[in-house]
Specification:
about 35% helix; elongated
């Protein structure tokens, strides 16, 4: 059986923690920042942890060797 290919678009967006959780950069911090509050922008800087039914999809299908 040949090796599975990594989805390169997903590899650029997601990474794994030591415990196997999926990290990602939060959205909405690129433009139109004047109307967003400072607190909201500060919280968007933090990395997000992917939860729910999306985790197995990322782990198995998009990043099989991650």
């Amino acid at each position: 059986m040949p090796k599975m290919k990594t989805r390169k678009s997903a590899a650029k967006r997601f990474s794994f923690t030591g415990g196997g959780k999926v990290k990602y950069k939060k959205q909405n911090l690129r433009h139109i920042l004047t109307k967003k509050s400072t607190k909201r922008k500060r919280n968007l800087r933090k990395t997000g942890i992917l939860a729910g039914e999306n985790v197995p999809v990322v782990r198995k299908k998009l990043l099989p060797y991650g």
